[in-house]
Write the structure tokens for this entry.
Amino acid sequence: MRTNLTGIMTPPEIKVFPAPGDVAREAADRIMRIAEEAVALGDRFAVALSGGSTPKLLYEMLAGEPYRSQIDWTKTEVFFADERYVPPDHAESNYRMARETLLGKVPIPGDNVYRISCEDDPDQGAKAYGLALKEKFADGGPDLVLLGMGEDGHTASLFPDTPALDETKHRAVANYVERSTTGKSWRVTMTAPFINRARHVIVLVTGANKARRLAEVLEGPRDPRRLPVQLVQPASGKLTWLIDAAAAGMEAAD
Ligand code: 6PG
């Protein structure tokens, strides 16, 4: 696949797999390797998870073997790329999804999970999360940020034409979204400049409903106000797109 996402960074790696299960398997294998490398290098593995439906399969896989035993969960620290502004037990909570599919099933100490608190007002929640990220990472970033892409080209909660896209200073901000998968709603999101400090960013995209937008994102002109996922360009880290055939606009293999 040709892409326009070159510029100053290392060109992204784009890999297409027959089905969503293959995408999840590849992501799980890569996560296991990145975790191992990070622990060897710095004695911890810091990963930011995303929400939505795409990563569920991946999280379920990570909770099973060989990943459950191979990843050192005691040295794994989990953050969230974004959160819907709902209580942690709400059906739409990204934290809840991650807990039910992964975090509740692996031996990760509770203190290693840094959820975005949605109990105060969104700006307070974003400020508190930003401070936690600052304390943890100072001027650096996580070992890995996992992202998805919405049908409209958003990623994390960086939605088209929203103020969060202009943020240059903060690590996390609140973002009010008029049109999202959860309707009009408040979100808290990592900002693009912070995501771009990660050592690895993996974007998972599956499903034919994403095909047109994905082609625009990867092959069309740069237009990040309309296609915010184009803001994801790690400064010195590695960007990988793992895509299924349907999202790549190819016929799925039988
Ligand atoms: C969220 C996400 C979001 C998601 C995309 C794709 O909270 O909704 O973190 O950015 O990754 O919307 O969502 P699907 O996987 O459900 O298509």
Notes: The mean pLDDT is 94.
